[in-house]
Design goal:
four-stranded antiparallel beta sheet; three-stranded antiparallel beta sheet; elongated; about 200 residues
């Protein structure tokens, strides 16, 4: 009489026949003739070989290996939007693994990369210049308010000490404002730091 093992290894699949892992099937106690109770979504087959970047799928007769990019982040060549891959398979031709540097770039299929047109380059430079001007104007406005406040403190100081302290602040902010104006005109390359109060 043949002796059968109590369990055998079986391959577990998901609803799309992708390999999930190994489990066991129990010997049918009622049959006792080598018939095993195979769990649902399981098959009797050799475990598929591991291949990095791929997932095994059962065809009904053998394993086929499908590209697996699940969990990876890609970017739409059209909208520049970030997309998380959630299904196995080849990456669509409409995406790239390279993020778009900014909204001024567009995908050029011929060169297989993000590029910037001369017009977009000019627009980007214009935006940078506008932001720089706005920032300098805000800083100049703050400096002018501080200078006026220190001037008031000097004009209406109750003690010599108060006046001396206010003069120090006035001088620091005037120097700062002068440096900002030099930066604005391109005479110095580094944005000056605000005085410590």
């Amino acid at each position: 009489m043949k002796i059968y093992t109590l369990t055998i290894p079986v391959c577990q699949l998901d609803e799309n026949n992708y390999f999930v892992g190994m489990t066991t099937a129990d010997l049918d106690p009622l049959e006792g003739n080598g018939h095993y109770l195979i769990p649902g979504l399981c098959i009797e087959a050799d475990e598929p070989k591991f291949k990095a970047g791929y997932i095994a799928q059962w065809t009904g007769e053998s394993w086929q290996y499908i590209e697996d990019h699940r969990g990876e982040t890609v970017y739409s060549k059209e909208t520049r939007q970030e997309i998380k891959i959630s299904e196995p398979g080849e990456l669509p031709k409409t995406v790239t693994t390279t993020p778009c540097p900014d909204s001024f770039h567009h995908w050029l299929e011929k060169e297989n990369k993000w590029v910037m047109s001369p017009e977009a380059e000019a627009q980007k430079q214009q935006q940078i210049d506008n932001e720089r001007k706005a920032r300098i104007n805000t800083l100049l406005s703050t400096a002018t308010e501080k200078i006026a406040a220190y001037q008031d403190m000097i004009d209406f100081a109750d003690t010599e000490e108060e006046s001396t302290e206010a003069e120090k602040g006035l001088l620091a902010w005037r120097k700062y404002r002068a440096a900002l104006l030099k930066y604005q005109k391109g005479l110095i390359s580094e944005l000056p730091s605000e005085p410590n109060e």
